[in-house]
Amino acid sequence: MERAPKVKPKEGYFERHRIVPGCMGGKYVTGNIVWLIPEEHYVAHQLLVKMHPGNRDLIYAAHMMGQTRKGNKTYGWLRRLFSENNPMQPGMTNSGSFKPGKDHPHKSNYKSFKPGEQSGEKNYMFGKKNLAISERNQSKVDCPYCEKSGGSTIMNRWHFENCKERGI
Description:
By secondary structure, the protein is of the alpha+beta class. 27% of the residues lie in helices and 8% in strands. It folds into 2 domains: 15-96, no CATH class; 131-168, no CATH class. It has helices at residues 38-51, 56-65, 72-85, 152-158, and strands at 15-18, 33-36, 140-142, 149-151. The longest helix is centred in the N-terminal third of the chain and has 14 residues, at 38-51.
């Protein structure tokens, strides 16, 4: 960590890493941030687990980094490849997600709703029949064993020849 740059280098692909991990109270503040190449970042997380083997959050972070990767060289190659093919937009983190509090670049395409704005008659589904709950154009059938009725699909699955009330 001593040799790692404290300011993001202008050339190459680097990942931000907290010296004191977030799960141990570390924040993204000057003095607690270093910029590592992906291979170093991968190894740093492996070392943190070795230093603190009982810390579940550190184990989880290292596990997620190694989920589909077979060592730090493959991890570095995949991260660089991803970075080259998916340039970051303003407000994005290294993982490709947006920072909390930052606006998504396409947010203007979404409506912002206030509480109560979609309730009752103002709701676009008001008065419409929800097909997920409705009969879905199925015919109703009755089970001869338990006398329950319902849509043909579910009744054929759980009743008739499969009915618990059927005396075998």
